[in-house]
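As a warm-up, study this chain.
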Amino acid sequence: MGLLTIGAFARATRLSPKALRLYDELGLLPPAHVDPVTGYRRYAPDQVERARLVAWLRRLGMPLVRIRHVCSLDAADAAREVRAFWARAEADFAARRDLVAFLVGHLEREDPAMTATVSPLGIRYAAGSDAGLVRTSNQDTAYAGSRLLAVADGYGDGGAPASAAAVDALKYLEADGVTAGGLLDVLADAVEQAERAVHGAVLAGDTGDTGTTLTAMLWTGSQLALVHIGDCRAYLLREGELFRITHDHTVVQTMIDEGRIGAEEAASHPQRSMLVRALGGGADATADMRLHDAGAGDRYLLCSDGLSTVVPDAEIRRVLAGAGEPEEAVRELVALANAAGGPDNVSCVVADVVAGA
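Now compare it with the structure written out below.
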């Protein structure tokens, strides 16, 4: 069979001539022959399969640059790359779904017809931070108050002032009343203020690649609004079951999401501490935000990765379920991290939701 005209090739591949010209210009799908006088393109029959692959990948929403990479691989590696792309797309979709749930819940609470009468609730809380057994200084900051709970884990030469600046920037939330209608704006403004504060601390110290993670919860009376950037974590203990309610913003977690490594490999992976989102250091500062309906008896834990990387979730659940007061739970969790070698700073905030406050 001879070369196909661009029209015949377009019909065979279900790609428009306009798309074929674009893919030629990008070096993604060059024709087998271009007439030097007319510029007319002709394609070989064995290019049909590659063109169809391009069309399918475009239907998935894959960027052209990544399609070019996939097309350069053998079949097995290309399949792994497509699987990784779709896993990342599903993770992004899940993040948008969480934001939709946040917005729906937020808007429903603005509607008096959707607001149920609830019993008064309050929180009891405690915070603790320890340098651990290896580090010479503590770059974590932990804070617990009647409205604000926060843990930040600084990194770089100026990590300590960066984490302190991030948490200090949120403390105005303790004094300012937050209405249901203003909650979303308050959270967005709080993240922006924290980011500016971290940049100010970094510039003042001229510390180079410095920044901090931040996980914080704002108590609104019957809900806890969550803001999360980085690899500190938030957990919920409800009716004896432990739920992790944050998603790590790390290179390793991205690799897990994309199916490139298993969860078992993450603990020892050389890039396990590399962040993809943080405040400062030129990182992406996009925050996850979520709203949690609180119930009497709920227990929340915010912690730095100095706890979560060395203490298994089962042990965290055991302590949270067995400790009486929040102060006791904080002490036991810090002790567990140090008993496991204390390789990093460890910070914990524990808050109990109580009735009749």
